[in-house]
Design goal:
Layout: E1 2-7, H1 10-20, E2 27-32, E3 42-43, H2 51-60, E4 65-68, H3 71-75, H4 78-84, E5 89-90, H5 98-101, H6 103-112, E6 120-123, H7 126-134, E7 140-144, E8 153-156, H8 159-171, E9 180-183, E10 190-198, E11 201-204, E12 209-210, E13 213-215, E14 219-222, E15 227-230, H9 237-257, E16 263-273, E17 276-283, H10 290-294, H11 302-310, E18 324-331, E19 354-356, E20 359-362, E21 365-368, E22 372-379, H12 383-396, E23 402-403
Helix pairs in contact: 7-8
The protein binds adenosine monophosphate and glycine.
């Protein structure tokens, strides 16, 4: 079978790696991919949002399956166009992906169907938004209602911060013209609950926790994720059951009732608060870096899993669960300004898995090509052992422009 993976990060590298273990898959393409993916798939020089060209490519190569990584491809309507062309594709429709691309859509759905989340209001007017913030205790949670590459959420500690953020979102249109969702501040540990969803059938994946802050001790700016681990010591079996029965399944059912059935990965960004588990956000895709430690635990054939979900069929799926974590190596300066093009040397004696997130090859040299550059995976008898193993590999990788956290999974 021929498979096309769309995207270019660590998530897509992990998907390609898992597909390469399937006996049913003979050829893997990845558009646009990266230097690590190039070792396991043929790279296709097409942008992940260039839907027309991607469709033409899939038709030409008789693609049996296409798997979508990024939210931007989903928001560009890639799945709808592929399906119109009778091509099998794994991922939700553009309409269903609104659960991620529109904070307002997600919030309205949760309130309508009693899915636990923070109370909220929606604003388009700057003055009204500011008055609402003034009437509530701080911190205030301000969310731009659209895709903003992880930068559309501001936790304002005081009125000055709130005013600046609201001005950016509603007056200066920093992320584009749009609305703002203002919601109550919740507290507690966050975790990622990814489920494969096929209409109303919901298949849970192992739980993980992302580390969003740039530096050790959860210091520094928010990033796309600097490390990830699982299983989670602070989540009980009852918690997981609650999240599945009261959040993930009802959300899939709500989408069905709204006439927008969900197909693909529904990713619950959840928080364990003192008043129970609540939804912080939903994503409509695999998480990055979560996927890099989830897919290695899949015991079933991933090709069958993807096809089953894409075809709307019942699937059989089995998972391992053992301590595993990933440490992200990022370009110095990330998530703000950073330089690219630094050489990376990976010695041959590294035994742990490495997934590339932002790399390229030029004249036989491996170079940095993104904010997050690679993720090093460690497994062990417990999380600390896994962390030590991953760190040993991290320290062997030579590159003058990378930094990483040393405390992933320690909390
Ligand atoms: P989101 O993009 O909605 O996941 O928000 C990004 C981050 O902001 C989350 O991972 C949380 O750490 C934080 N956050 C979002 N909403 C809330 C909230 N209601 N209360 C506290 N923190 C929040
Ligand atoms: N790790 C966060 C995300 O994929 O959105």
């Amino acid at each position: 079978m021929n498979v096309l993976v769309i995207g270019s990060g660590g998530r897509e590298h992990a998907i390609v790696d898992a597909l390469s273990k399937s006996k049913k898959v003979s050829k893997i393409y990845c558009a646009p991919g990266n230097a690590g993916i190039a070792k396991q798939a043929e790279l296709v020089a097409l942008k992940d949002t260039d839907v027309e060209k991607l469709v033409a490519f899939a038709v030409e190569k008789n693609m049996d399956l296409t798997v979508v990584g990024p939210e931007t491809s989903l928001a560009a309507g890639i799945t709808d166009v592929f399906r119109e062309n009778n091509l099998r594709i794994f991922g939700p429709s553009k309409n269903a992906a609104q659960i991620e691309s529109s904070k307002r859509f997600a919030k309205n759905l949760m309130i309508k169907y009693n899915i636990p989340t923070a109370a909220y209001e929606v604003f388009t007017d700057f003055e009204k938004a500011l008055n609402y913030v003034k009437s509530k205790p701080f911190p205030a949670v301000l969310k731009y209602d659209g895709l903003a590459a992880g930068k559309g959420v501001v936790i304002a500690e005081n009125l000055d911060e709130a005013e600046i953020a609201l001005k950016d979102m509603l007056v200066n249109d920093k992320f584009g013209e749009g609305k703002v969702v203002i919601e109550d501040f919740l507290e507690g540990p966050e975790f990622s609950f990814l489920c494969l969803v096929n209409g109303t059938e919901v298949y849970p994946m192992p739980l993980t926790q992302d580390h969003k802050r740039a530096f050790d001790g959860d210091k520094g700016p928010n990033t796309g994720g600097m490390g990830v681990y699982g299983p989670l010591p602070f989540i009980t079996e009852d918690d997981k059951k609650f999240a599945l029965e009261n959040i993930m399944k009802p959300t899939a059912e709500a989408m069905m009732k709204e006439g927008i059935p969900f197909s693909g990965v529904l990713y619950g960004g959840l928080m364990k608060t003192q008043n129970g588990i609540k939804v912080i956000e939903f994503n409509a895709r695999f998480g990055d870096p979560e996927t890099e430690i989830i897919l290695p635990k899949l015991k079933s054939d991933i090709f069958d899993v993807f096809c089953g979900i894409a075809d709307g069929k019942h699937i059989e799926i089995e998972w391992d669960d053992y301590p595993i974590l990933g440490i992200v190596m990022a370009s110095k300066g990330y998530p703000d300004h950073y330089e690219k093009g630094f050489e990376i040397k990976i010695p041959n004696d590294i035994e742990t898995t490495i997934y590339h997130m932002g790399t390229t090859e030029k004249n036989g040299k491996l170079l940095t090509a993104g904010g997050r550059v690679m993720i090093v995976i460690g497994q062990g008898k417990d999380l600390n052992d896994a962390r030590i193993k991953a760190l040993e590999s991290v320290k062997k990788i030579e590159c003058e422009n990378l930094f990483y956290r040393t405390d992933i999974g320690l909390k």
